[in-house]
Amino acid sequence: MTRRGSARSAAERQAQEAKADWDAERARRDAQVQAALTDYYQATAHAEQIRATARRKADSITDDAERAAAVPVGAARDAVRRLRDLLGGITEVATLCGLSVNAVREILARAKDTSGELDGQ
Question: What is the span of the domain harbouring residue 37?
Fold first, then answer.
């Protein structure tokens, strides 16, 4: 019976060593998974921060461009209004300017709105 008991003890030691190796490998793998996930979340947060900064810069540049373009846009609206007055029709203005009739109507409506604002009406 001693022999059988010592064989059992030896088997238990072997099982414990195998499990310890397996547990150590699993712990290493878990640490690698944790590190990879940390890298992923850090990188995606950084990428989003870069995109948000770029969006703020782009919005600022667009706002600056819109302010700078206001004078020439107003001049273009005035020119379209004058063309309509000279030609008598929206279709002719649209054809000459390469615009749709609806676009000319919108420009004229805005020209009317802004002229009223400028005249204090």
Answer: 2-119
